[in-house]
Amino acid sequence: MRIGIGYDAHALVRGRKLFLGGVEIPSDRGLLGHSDGDCLIHAICDAILGAISEQDIGHHFPDSDQAIKGISSVEILRFVSDLTNKKGYSIVNIDAVVVAETPKISPYREKIKEKLSEILGIEKDSISIKGKTTEGLGFTGRKEGIAVYAVALVEKTPGVWQEVTGGI
Ligand code: MG
User: Fold this and answer.
1) 34 has pLDDT over 80
2) Ligand 1 centre and the CA of 1: distance in Å?
3) What pLDDT, in 10s, does the model give residues 132-165?
């Protein structure tokens, strides 16, 4: 078993759609970013990449690359999921905390879990998404942005391990 941690934060600005966990959430502001700004997916990607020792999202998707400007974060998560499988790992579970004054996460939790479980090919029950406010403190409390903390646990996939390493 291996564990990874991920963190991300993006600014909330007018004139952008709000995406969290691959789900569009009704809001008068969205997250600014080179991609769609989905910091929940970005933090989860970094947690998984950390667990499989594959650096971070900026290494695989540099924001200097104009070809990926406006890319859906769902595509980034699909890439990370494929890379995980290629390296012979399976995701055991994911836990994430979305730090935001608004929106409330609970009405969208099931939809987000469904979306992520479909992309990652794991059970909904293996994904946990929690919302947390900071009681008005800091940039999240002032509704200037959203921050996300995530952890991911992975394990070697039986069989694939032998294929990748040549066995014992
Ligand atoms: Mg990001």
Assistant:
1) yes
2) 26
3) 999 999 999 999 999 999 999 999 998 765 555 5
Distance 46 CA to ligand 1 centre (A): 9
Question: How many domains, in total, are found in the chain?
Answer: 1
Separation of 90 CA from ligand 1 center, angstroms? 23
Inter-helix orientation angle 73-86/109-120, to 10°: 40
Tens of pLDDT along 51-65? 999 999 999 999 888
The answer to whether position 168 is within a domain reads no
pTM exceeds 0.90: yes
CA–centroid distance, residue 36 to ligand 1 (Å): 9
In-domain check, residue 165:
no
CATH number at residue 56: 3.30.1330.50
44 within domain boundaries: yes
Q: Does some domain include residue 163?
A: no
